[in-house]
Design goal:
Strand content: 15-25%
CATH class of the largest domain: Alpha Beta
Distance between the termini: 28 Å
CATH topology of the largest domain: Dipeptide-binding Protein, domain 3
Number of domains: 3
Shape: globular
Radius of gyration: 23 Å
CATH architecture of the largest domain: Roll
Number of strands: 21
Structural class: alpha+beta
CATH superfamily of the largest domain: Dipeptide-binding Protein, Domain 3
Amino acid sequence: MMKIFKAAVFAASLALGVSPAALAETPADVLVVAQNIDDIVSIDPAEAYEFSSGEYVTQTYDRLVQYDAPDVKKLAPGLASEWTADDAAKTVTFTLRDGVTFSSGNPLRAEDVVYSFKRVVALNKAPAFILTQLGWTPENIEKMVTADGNKVIVKYEGDFSSAFVLNVLAARPASVVDAETVKANEENGDFGNAWLKANSAGTGPFVLRAFRAGELLNLQSNPNYFGGAPAIKGVIIRHVAEAATQQLLLETGDVDMAKNLTPDQVAGITGKENMRVESYPQAAVHFLSFNQKTAPLQPEAVWEAARYLVDYKGMTDSFLKGQMEVHQAFWPKGFPGSLDETPYSYDVEKAKKILADAGIKTPIKVTLDVINSTPFTDMAQSLQASFAEAGINFEIIPGTGSQVITKYRARTHEAMLLYWGPDFMDPDSNAAAFAFNEDNSDDHYQSTTTWRNAWAVPAELNAATKAAKAEADPAKRNAMYVDLQKKVQEKSPIVIMFQAATQVAMKASVAGYVNGATSDFVFYRLVKKN
């Protein structure tokens, strides 16, 4: 493994123009990262819908407005230097920033923005719903988004404010691609989708040199980036699934950063000379969900009992220590509108009584799909042990991130252990995923946990989700989302357990790395190696 890793880093470094003599450890002007990136299904920004692909899109593309380093909590100008909103007319007009070029050298035009939004809607891949919720369709998109010189006029339909629209347009699928370059690489009307799975065509601080699934992402700095050229020449992200291997690579100097260490490994590195560990609160919530196509998992008593069969404290006091905290609502703690109450604890006898009172016959045998890496396999084993106490027996089925996620999207699982991060920084992003599903039919694909678990959400919850999205008063709106979370917390086939924190181990020489609350807020462009 180590020889293969070094050979791959050597080859990637040569591609960036780094001298072989500089490879005693890692190149002085290249950041080398060990990370589990096997969740990537696609790196086309119109299709990318995984955590690792989200990180990649941020490095290579920009949006009209975006949350950017170093202050990732503030919505800032991106490719648009300014904008004006007309809530009454449901229109936002953006003025493009002067002098921006794509990595190809082509200048940024309003037409590129129009094309980028059109291709997302036309392709209709997993994240397309983020934009189509603005009332955009393949039939009307050319009327809803138009170009006028250096201005882009965005129209929307729906009962929500322009503030919500701006958050939508700061999301990943609103990334702007180089229309001329992508059109030149279209195949059979695919809007360049196949080509963008192996190439980048953005304005971002980095350009893709190579992507090999389950192996490597090789990024080269863009010296013409409008926000200033990155301080380093490139970033090499190597897929390393095993946490122990990541630790070894960091300690031997073969990587500058390790992103998936266990708490024990973090403790072993903390305090070591020339190394440090940074902790970053995350918006991702981790949950156990039950597919409602599976008959034994349909009774509400099973849902309720499950909430008392998770050893929350046992996990967060041991192998999840420092990396997750108990959180039992769909919107993460630390954001307006969150529900921070945790009413459920591990209580086997209570769970048994709930099942018995409802006449549920045990044992129940259920398959549990899980990503085959830490901490997910450890979590699955803990759930397997604690649920067995009440006669619910999990058969653990491990797979790569992409295998597990693909199965989840196809609704072919029984039980699933997974995580969810908001698609954009608005509570509706998670409410739409955990509390809304008006059409549960198999041919009506939706990128939500409710649809993927075949849960036909009650009409009153659907109505409450839409009402919260339309509410203009911030205080009232937040209160509505708290109430929504209480209802989902009490009765849903989705058992929310934890909120994540990311611990990143790195060499002491690394400075300027920014890791916000979601994968879209990971930035390498300010990194320096002192």
